[in-house]
Amino acid sequence: MTIDKIDSFDEKAELLFRNLISDYGYTLEGKNLFELNGMKWSTKHVYINSDTHLKIEIQQAPYYTDYGFSIFIYNLRTDEYNILYNIPHDSHDEEDKFLVRAHQTLFSSSEAIDLISGKYWRKLSHILFQE
Asked: Which of 6, 69, 83, 117 has the most Cβ atoms closer than 10 angstroms to its Cβ?
């Protein structure tokens, strides 16, 4: 039996990104599953930090689009957002190693950590990390 790409992502991403909760004060507000014609199409994990007024959405859209994996951060005070990471679906591997790589890269970057922690906000003119 093969594991669905979305189910696998939901399981692995929730474990990997739990440091948003333990280290940065976010809460996992929900996981949203989107379907098209009765088939799973994409999923989104939504994290909120009420103290910093930031929202992070970790999305996986492996079917029907080229969006693939993305991490967005929203400033809820200004309605601005940045794309912290993007990997198109054709750059994914079967074992989801791209997800681990993205997590390591993101949390090794002082600029990303400053944004995630709410240390400062600035609108970026580019995707911070892209593969």
From this structure: 69
Strands 39-49 and 27-36: antiparallel
Higher pLDDT, 35 or 120: 120
75: its two tokens: 């400033």
Give the distance, in angstroms, between the CA of residue 66 and the centroid of all CA atoms in the same chain.
16
Residue-wise pLDDT for 103-123, tens only, equals: 999 999 999 999 999 999 999
Buried/exposed code over 29-66 (b: 16+ C-beta within 10 A; e: otherwise): eeeeeeeeeeebebbbbbbbbeebebbbbbbbbbbeee
CB hemisphere CA count around 84 (13 angstroms) = 27
CA-based nearest residue to 102, from 124, 115, 114, 87: 87
CA distances from 31 to 5, 23, 60, 65 (A): 15, 20, 11, 20
Q: What is the DSSP letter of 121?
A: -
- At 27, the amino acid letter reads T
